[in-house]
Amino acid sequence: MKISFHGAARTVTGSKHIIHLNNGKKILLDCGLFQGLGAETLEHNQQFGFDPTEITYMILSHAHIDHSGLLPKLVKEGYQGKIFCTPATADLTTILLKDSAFIQEADIAYVNKRKMAKGLPPISPLYTIADANNVFPLFEKVPYGKHYKLDDDISFHYTDTGHILGSAAVHITIKENGKVTTITFSGDVGRYRDVILCSPEEFPQSDYIILESTYGNSLHEGIANTDDELYNHILETCIENKGKLIIPAFSVGRTQEILFALNKLEVDGRLPDLNYYVDSPLSVKTTEIIKRHAELYNKRVVRLMKEDKYPFEFKGLHMITDVEDSKRLNNKKEPMVIISASGMAEAGRIKHHIANNIENPRNTILMAGFCEYHSLGAKLMRGEKEVKIYTQEFQVKANIASIKSMSAHADYDDLCQFIACQKSSLVKSLFIVHGEYDVQEEFRNRLLKKGFKDIEIPNRHQIFNLE
Ligand SMILES: [Zn+2]
Asked: What is the pLDDT of residues 320-344, one digit of tens each?
């Protein structure tokens, strides 16, 4: 048996790993899009490094585009099997892939317009909305804990990782030459004591583990402070400075956490009397899905819902989908809070809001999650004084702040807790994926101290033999 890594290898996007059985069967774990890698991004996304027609089974860990975003290309290029995922992942992925396809088409239309003006031949998008629509009939929904037999030799089940709604670790059991091998793929691991989701679950002893490492070298601040942090930023920006608080937030997870925290401020009787806008059609849709999957909330939310039936709704909240309503926000001069996607400020309406508000020192741009190095969000967080948005340069005069405590990713304490259910001496190899290389090296040193022996940091397209 072999395993190969085709994305999220020494970087945090493009998650794609393949288990190769000796009989020729291949199991693809995730099929994510590379994002925010600068000039390399397109080339990485164009070349899988494997043949989609040779994949036997496709198992998806969760809906995030860096894990699911190349499924339309996989199907377009010949994958015909089922796509296994949890029910909530199917719901979220459907919305996210349609949105991603729309962006692919729009981006390429823009590029081609410029190419045509220079007399250059047009290029085609990675995939279209029609390609995305071919993915959805292939979804096979497998709930957490259900043992699913793929064939006589291969079975798998999911456990909750508490990262986003429906996120799962994949546990695969393979019989080969009379020997049983167990492999766990963590997907992305969430935090223990998340505000909305359940904590990551324990999982059975595995021979091989593929483990994410986004925050493998750092510790987050306590989650309990999120509503206080938000409150202080609203107070300073909107009440004292009479400015606008602009929050770039991922459509899945972060947006709902912010709404939940604002709702808590209302329950506590201290939510400032302002207008709060969620300005992103995608965030509005994903919030609806998260409201529909109350069976996945943790006990604290369930308890709260006995008193407050709508934990994501409060006075002053407006959900905006119409583009004209979005544009109208620019003309409003009063203090307000705008939550918009994307979280890295790389795409979507948030770019317009940042462009319109970045040169006013009364405003604050509040980053609420991980930002890839080349993204606009990362540039702002690094303190760059001038940034390019679309084709224009802007002076950064607004206050730039961040609430790191809101990360959906485990920090190293969480990751260590996640694998504490494993007897390290029985794990033959541990592969660290989904992290920056320097972070991964630090994380490896921590894991070595915990008794894990063979710890690899795979490079893109690297292949390893499994015993
Ligand atoms: Zn994720």
From this structure: 999 999 999 999 999 999 999 989 9
- Residue 146 and residue 257 share a domain: no
Give me ligand 1 centre to Cα 1, in Å: 27
Kindly give the distance from the C-alpha atom of residue 276 to the centroid of ligand 1, in angstroms, as a whole number.
Answer: 26
Cα 329 to averaged position of ligand 1 atoms, centre (Å): 30
Distance 66 CA to ligand 1 centre (A): 7
Q: For residue 331, what are the domain limits?
A: 223-406
Burial class (CB within 10 angstroms; exposed 0-12, middle 13-18, buried 19+) of 389: middle
- pLDDT digit string (tens) for 117-158? 999 999 899 999 999 999 999 999 999 999 999 999 999 999
Classify residue 466 as exposed, middle or buried by CB count within 10 Å of its CB (0-12, 13-18, 19+): middle
Does 54 lie in the same domain as 19? yes
**Per DSSP, what are the bridge partners of residue 297?**
197
Residue 60 sits in the same domain as residue 202: yes
Distance from Cα 97 to the centre of ligand 1, integer Å: 14
CA–CA distance, 431 with 410 (Å, rounded to integer): 17
278: domain CATH number? 3.40.50.10890
The model carries a pTM of 0.91
Structural domain total, the chain: 2
What is the Å distance from ligand 1's center to 315 Cα?
30
Integer Cα distance of 413 and 189 in angstroms: 12
Instruction: Tell me, in angstroms, the distance from the centre of ligand 1 to residue 157's CA.
Output: 19
**Distance from residue 62's CA to the centre of ligand 1 (Å):** 7
What is the CA(420)–ligand 1 centre distance, in A?
21
Residue 434 near residue 370 (C-beta atoms within 8 A): no
